[in-house]
Amino acid sequence: MTAPAPVTGQIPAAPTASGSAALDAARPLRILLIEDNPSDARLTQERLRGSGITCDFAAALAEVTAPRLRAVDCALIDLGLPDASGLQALDRVRELAPDLPTVVLTGLDDEVTGLIALRAGAQDYLVKQRAEGYDIARAVRFAVARKHLQITADSQALHELDLTDDVIQQLYAIGLAMSSSRRRTAQTDPAMAERIAGHMLALQHVVQNIRDNTTSTGGRGRGDAGDGSAESTPPGGGP
After folding, report:
1. Does domain 18-153 correspond to CATH entry 3.40.50.2300?
2. Sequence ranges of the domains in the chain
3. Are 128 and 109 in contact (CB under 8 A)?
4. What sign does the dihedral 59-60-62-64 (CA atoms) show?
5. H helix intervals, 62-217
6. CA distances from 156 to 150, 152, 211 (A)
7. 57: which residues sit within 8 A by CB, 6+ positions away?
8. Distances (CA, A) of 170 to 158, 173, 206
9. Angle at which helices 38-47 and 133-185 cross, to 10°
10. Which terminus in the chain has less CB density within 10 A, N or C?
């Protein structure tokens, strides 16, 4: 039987960007295994042999740095570290690398902590004593894929919110121009001024609908900040 490969602090592998992780399950991945027990770390490495996943290794939270996290696709975190208790290790990793997928390792009778870790931002958790190679590889790949989709969705939502703000800005400009036209024609062409007023009212309803839809989806336009900006006045709302 081949002896397990020794655990080292750095395992040669091409660095990859966690934020651009592809969904291809065959793509080689690199993880940072944060585990203080050398035997457990070697066992995890051995179980991952042939899975296309290689390990960097940290025996304590103090060894985890932002550069090391940038060089991996996922962090696999044992919650029983000598210099961290509870979810401190997870919180620290998320602080150093907010976009890095994380999977936590929890004890056999401590699945509640795993569920709490999910609420704290981990993509998945594994019961340490039950985690076979397939389970670890599957959890890591799913975590990377899930985080990639989340980042993509968040980016798209921000882009759509920016577009919404731009549209509202343009509609306000149109409303101001219509208000000026209405004032100019109020004396010379009352009928035209009345038609402009009707268009301004319709425009005001359009802007309000956009703002309501943005609010209902959790977005917030620049004009909603309550800072006294011009956007806080509906188009055509002036005299």
Report:
1. yes
2. 18-153, 155-232
3. no
4. positive
5. 66-70, 88-96, 111-119, 133-185, 190-216
6. 10, 6, 18
7. 7, 8, 9, 11, 32, 33, 35, 41, 45
8. 19, 5, 12
9. 80
10. N
